[in-house]
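Protocol step 4 of 6: structure prediction from sequence.
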Amino acid sequence: WDTFTHSRGMANADVACDFYHKYAEDIQTMKRLGFTHFRYSISWSRVMNGKQRNEQGIQFYKDLTAELLKNNIEPVVTLYHWDLPADLDWRDDGVVEAFGDYADLMFSELTDVKYWLTLNEPWAFCTLGYQYGMHAPGAPGSESGLLQCGHNALRAHAKAYGIWKEKHAPHRPSAKVGITLNCDWFEPLNPDSEGDRELSNKEVDLVLGWFAEPIYGQGDYSSNVKAHYGDVLPVFTDAEKAAIKGSSDFFGLNHYTSTYVDSTRAYGSHETRIKNGAPIGSVAGSSWLYVVPWGFNRILTYVKNRWNPSAIVVTENGMSDADSSEVTKLVHDYSRIAFYEGYLREMAKAISESNVPVIGYFAWSLLDNFEWASGYEERFGLVYVDFNDPARPRTVKKSAEYLGALKAQMASCR
């Protein structure tokens, strides 16, 4: 991303919210709000250059982990949230071994971490990076490159999980390793249409099932994925299938929004956000993010019915506001409170009515931050960050106070 943004003159993450220098302050904010878990990601290129260790980078994550634990906040650590060393490419087989070495290093160094995620949203970094070129490395290409990225992502995930199980799990039996996958809900435009229902299942399979079926299902791609891509789809060896199958201790899910699918339209223009002249929900600060709480219930129930995981952790859920000079309005973010009320209500219904085994939930995100190709135009944070001030001062938003009060109320009900 450093190369991608700097070479194109885009907004970059050289400083961003400056968590590197301000993490102790942010941890105190979390503590005051009563938050008990914090998901952070490691910058691969900060801790390794090829096989060479960067001790200063490693020490930062050790210090961060220690500070969280000192304040009774459990770290949940993502190994790869899109920060790829510049000499690597997800389309090349060599990335699999390199990722295994990197995972082994961090498993060895952060011995107090109990919850790990190998990859964040492989669908997103493969599709946006290697098909459309909208994200780093900005390499628009054919389906073969997209699919090879996904194939190697699954192999790399399984490599890391295998290393964990063989070398580290025997000494840390209570720790868990998983992966986090993203998916919108695809609702049949006409629920009575068999074509729309089939298209809904296909679309979920092409996004979520692409990775979930090999890991939580049969160890191989689903029939929908194989039929859609045909001979272009890479093939796993039997050994790879065995390594990938079951290579996650829980189901990590990122979910934000939903869309309708219409089988009467040509494929490629089959998605719509309008039904009978009405939008599926209100639009947030990101053009793609419509607020659709009931879709959250649908996707959670789908995961339970399709793969029946022992545990689901919602690793991201939240909404954006468009950046604005009206800071008071951004801090008094009542639309975000309404978002969380709606989505959490639907999650509770999925748990109580459909026995969906959700054991954890992470709001995205603690801080306003660098939003990839959108730079600083969209704000997802529970805490406002002033990016115009070199000191990056923070202001707690109303939504953070709401979630903190909700957490306290839940604790009092136990």
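Step 5 (inspection) to follow. The mean pLDDT is 97.
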